[in-house]
């Protein structure tokens, strides 16, 4: 017995041609611990865009019927040699209904249920997913409400778990007006964690203040680093999370933290001995990270990624995090979508140019069976 | 009872004027755990130059009698506000004879002894030093042989201790032909630690090969990163130490490590999940560190500094390290000096331009009573 439908794939060839295609396919009945989920809603997260388009030139792409062909810069093409020639499905997460399940009791337990899931192939009529990456949602929760219940919520909670594991007591967050950033504001308010939010406009300041945020800093205004240092002093936040990656954000955070740490202290050419750290967890700017190193020798810049973090955190922490997400899905972890599109619309120029711009406030939800 | 002599100091004023001065002074008899050491030999290490000159324009300085006045760039001057107006002694380490000691038994035990020490003020006729930062040397060891027995030896040993503590099994070392780099080659050979040496010339390749080094890579030759990745594959060295700091060395190391980690692996847009880390422990290039981030999200770049490391390592590890340094002072930890100068000569233009150039193969020893 097979299931017929359509699936979006992205393929990068060695010559730099990137092809997104929406094609017919069928799914076999799942075996073992696998589920087959009829997808009802799937968000487009920045991490999805990294796989779908990376740095391809979507502005000058060739948009055809169920197909999009764009050119990838040569350097990026070379750095992705392992994906050359492979049509890869996309879409980390979503929500839907389990229409078939393998023999394993863990899979059978979810048969017929409405679930939030992380199949890594959510942009399709159906998606196959391991039972451990899906969890049942209540009747009072819609697919749309449950669609983003993994990546952003677990990432935001993961920041606070990481903070505790690393021995810090406050967080500086860049690009903090994002959906993820708003969740982090609500978590930190509820948990009493000092949070410094760095944003890029007065509107974003208002947005976060309205949520109850105490420290919101507009980086486009004068004296950014001085104001950031003041906020670090007030909060003791010596741990940063930066989704921008390129440019000087990580360096600016460390500079502000060091300025705070050395206020009134004796001069040391090696800088303060106070620990300070920034995790880079995204690449909104794909250019190089530039560290001025005007912040001594006691510092750390590191990559942060959800799945390796979850693996290291262990099953007990994961279960605790997931339980909280489920119980606060429509409050703390509520996502807001600016646009809802079908699989077909995912390949239309207007939509692509908008959702691939990764602008704060614009978040797309895909309705694969819409 | 006082001790008369001369001491070199360095002072940075708020207007950017840097003044090095060799002036008469006297030292009181030491109290408590303090020693007074008559200094016989003190090396000029890169870390000393950071305090003495930082980024001052020594080429166009005013060289006078026992005095040197240079201009510091404005940005650097501002970043060092805590030292403005203070005449600071310099010289991390050296060797000499204890001519007076405080009442504490730890100090009295070293009275009259020849010692290697870390007074932080070695460029003077005398220096005061805590007894815990000095250790007696054997009669068969000269002051010159003992002068560099702390900073470089403990740093090189510290790298291997750090490697073990962080769970790595091999090291990539940049600017590896330095005195420190040569010690690291000998330590790694003796301890069976895989070491990849990155150098800048064919001469330096020969120098390290003659010491017995297996992997020596000339970064000025074509295909540097490819060759580095090959060496990483052969050695499993996923931990780097970089004294350059500015530019792309740390990034290049991570790129090579990632290239090795993903050879033959499935594509993941997040990169490999293999841990890779680079410590920046110097600033031979004071420009910004540029990280291309073409190496996934599992990476770490961090500052490394000897004294915080020693503090974290604990007294047992420190004692073990120091014991080894003393017993291998004329073999594993032997330093080679290209020039020997007096305190007066430290302020002469020819000498300053040479020793402040931080060139591999040029290492100065100061004879404060010479």
TrEMBL record, chains A, B:
PANTHER family: QUINONE OXIDOREDUCTASE PIG3 (PTHR48106:SF18), QUINONE OXIDOREDUCTASE PIG3-RELATED (PTHR48106). The lineage of its organism: Bacteria, Pseudomonadati, Pseudomonadota, Alphaproteobacteria, Sphingomonadales. InterPro entries: ADH-like_C (IPR013149), ER (IPR020843), GroES-like_sf (IPR011032), NAD(P)-bd_dom_sf (IPR036291). Residues 16-353 form the Enoyl reductase (ER) domain. This is NADH oxidase. SUPFAM superfamilies: GroES-like (SSF50129), NAD(P)-binding Rossmann-fold domains (SSF51735). The keyword Kinase does not apply. It comes from Croceicoccus marinus. Keywords: NADP, Oxidoreductase. CDD domains: ETR_like_1.
């Amino acid at each position: 017995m097979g299931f017929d439908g359509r699936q979006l794939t992205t393929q990068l060839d060695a010559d730099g041609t990137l092809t997104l295609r929406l094609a017919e396919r069928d799914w076999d009945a799942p075996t073992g611990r696998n589920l087959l989920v009829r997808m009802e809603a799937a968000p487009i997260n920045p991490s999805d865009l990294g796989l779908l388009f990376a740095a391809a030139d979507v502005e000058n792409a060739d948009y055809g019927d169920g197909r999009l062909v764009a050119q990838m810069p040569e350097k990026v093409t070379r750095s992705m040699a392992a994906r050359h020639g492979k049509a890869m499905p996309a879409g980390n997460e979503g929500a839907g209904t389990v229409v078939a399940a393998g023999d394993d009791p863990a899979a059978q337990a979810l048969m017929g249920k409405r679930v939030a899931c992380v199949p890594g192939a959510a942009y399709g009529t159906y998606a196959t997913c391991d039972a451990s990456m899906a969890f049942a949602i209540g009747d009072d929760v819609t697919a749309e409400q449950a669609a983003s219940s993994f990546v952003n919520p677990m990432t935001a909670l993961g920041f606070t778990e990481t903070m505790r594991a690393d021995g810090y007591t406050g967080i500086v967050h860049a690009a903090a007006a994002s959906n993820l950033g708003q969740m982090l504001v609500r978590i930190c308010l509820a948990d009493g964690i000092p949070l410094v939010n760095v944003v890029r406009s007065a509107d974003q300041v208002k947005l976060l203040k309205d949520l109850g945020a105490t420290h919101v800093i507009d980086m486009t205004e004068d004296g950014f680093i001085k104001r950031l240092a003041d906020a670090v002093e007030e909060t003791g936040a010596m741990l940063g999370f930066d989704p921008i990656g390129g440019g000087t954000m990580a360096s600016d955070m460390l500079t502000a933290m060091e300025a705070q740490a050395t206020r009134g202290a004796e001069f040391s050419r090696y800088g303060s001995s106070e620990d300070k750290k920034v995790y880079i967890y995204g690449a909104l700017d794909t250019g190089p990270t530039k560290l001025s190193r005007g912040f001594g020798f006691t510092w750390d810049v590191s990559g942060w990624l959800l799945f390796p973090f979850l693996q290291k955190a262990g099953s007990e922490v994961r279960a605790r995090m997931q339980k909280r997400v489920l119980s606060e899905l429509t409050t703390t972890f509520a996502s807001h979508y600016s646009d809802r599109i079908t699989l077909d619309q995912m390949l239309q120029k207007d939509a692509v140019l908008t959702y691939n711009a990764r602008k704060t406030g614009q978040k797309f939800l895909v309705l694969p069976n819409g």
